[in-house]
């Protein structure tokens, strides 16, 4: 028995017994000329897709399972011609997508892509750099540091977040990851390093409002605090964190022997775009007996600070421990690209740095270089700075400001139209390019307005609830939207609101 095992093991390692392997590199199967030709065709396809978005519905008419059913159940054994793959992309995949770049996409928050960002990402894909350490791609690391210093300057963020001091910026895949690593750093600091070595050794608490993003609760779960550690602090009428309520929650926890670990302030909440008072939160925290980490989640709204009239969005940032915003939402950069800054990288590195032997280099021994793997959860990292750098150069500060200003200006006009409408009202004050509205006649009428706007997949509008009431959200921000699309939407909303109140009137008549 032992003998036959041995012989099969030696057979597997005997080259003459292995299936024949080609002498050519794998790239020969799709060579540089084929790549060039098909790459040009694909870039043409993307340009045509963008140019033709207007003609498509913004949302597909598909049911779960339709797409899968249209595709082969098993993978191909032989290589398929690229042209056929492209054809399926065109015929089967693209028509079954929600078109986030559509000019009538007003849902959720935008997920911008732009020519420079797509080309930057293509370059990054072609280079295939793994930028986990400075040594594994020096320019990838240094360009990221530079791009985040540039972005900090463009947003008017305080110098403490710049890389030439104790702090610095890093690109995370998402705002959710930014909140998670902020919480890991906070946990590290609050436990004096114990969390890293033994796990959490005392009850910790995190503070945010009920309007904070769901990623706060998720981060508390992942960081081992548990979601019961999240305190939903009360808000004022504008859905902003109430600093007095925060002070009370902190005091109650201290009395109960719970250690306050972090406050997650939101600048631009997902539901209504409310902005928590960061400076006042910092005032409350300054009175605490031990430091409490202040993270600002400005995922959507933060990038608007490129326009000086929106610098209020960064006020108080000089007193935050970390601050984060998503160029991949509203700043022309395709997913994923979250910009995350810390004022002091110490606790972050304490929490996340691990140096296995196979990653030791002269550069990390000298301490002269940044190893961004220590600033995030995974080890590997894509060269995402490239697309951000392409965007910052491709649009310039003036182009970025113009992008934001358009949408804010059009949203202001839409909000005026809503206020002037006899049937509609604003459900919250307009925040930047987010307009929240509802029908004056109540829930059913509001639901009908939302349905009518999305009818036949014509546009994408999504909803939320504020104070328990249904709200239609209009988030303007697609790079293909023009002012007239927003004016047309305002007309449609008015017409739908009028029809909804007539329907209400009829229903009332019938019930009498
Ligand atoms: C969109 C959003 C997030 C989540 O962003 P991801 O980058 O998708 O994780 C978090 N917080 C706020 C306030 C958001 O608007």
* Small molecules in complex: pyridoxal-5'-phosphate
Radius of gyration: 26 Å
CATH architecture of the largest domain: 3-Layer(aba) Sandwich
Helix content: 40-55%
If you average the pLDDT, what whole number results? 94
Helix-strand pattern, N to C? HHHHHHEHHEHEHEHEEHEHHHEEHEEH
Number of strands: 11
> What is the CATH domain class of the largest domain?
Alpha Beta
Looking at the structure, the CATH topology of the largest domain is Aspartate Aminotransferase, domain 2
Beginning-to-end CA distance, first to last residue: 90 Å
What fraction of the residues are assigned to beta strands by DSSP? 5-15%
Task: Note the overall shape.
Answer: globular
Q: Please give the domain count.
A: 3
Report the structural category.
alpha/beta
Give the full name of the CATH homologous superfamily of the largest domain. Type I PLP-dependent aspartate aminotransferase-like (Major domain)
For the largest beta sheet, what order do the strands appear in spatially? 1-7-6-5-4-2-3
How many helices? The count is 17
List low-confidence stretches: 1-9
Biggest sheet overview: 7 strands, mixed
SSE map:
Elements lengths: L1 H12 L18 H21 L13 H4 L12 H12 L21 H13 L10 H18 L12 E5 L2 H16 L3 H5 L5 E6 L4 H9 L7 E4 L9 H13 L3 E8 L11 H9 L6 E5 L24 E4 L1 H4 L7 E5 L3 H7 L9 H5 L18 H36 L3 E3 L7 E6 L3 H12 L7 E5 L2 E7 L7 H29 L1
Parallel strand pairs: 2-3, 2-4, 4-5, 5-6
Antiparallel strand pairs: 1-7, 6-7, 8-9, 9-11, 10-11
Helix pairs in contact: 5-15, 6-15, 7-9, 7-13, 10-11, 15-17, 16-17
The structure holds pyridoxal-5'-phosphate.
Pyridoxal-5'-phosphate binds next to helix 7.
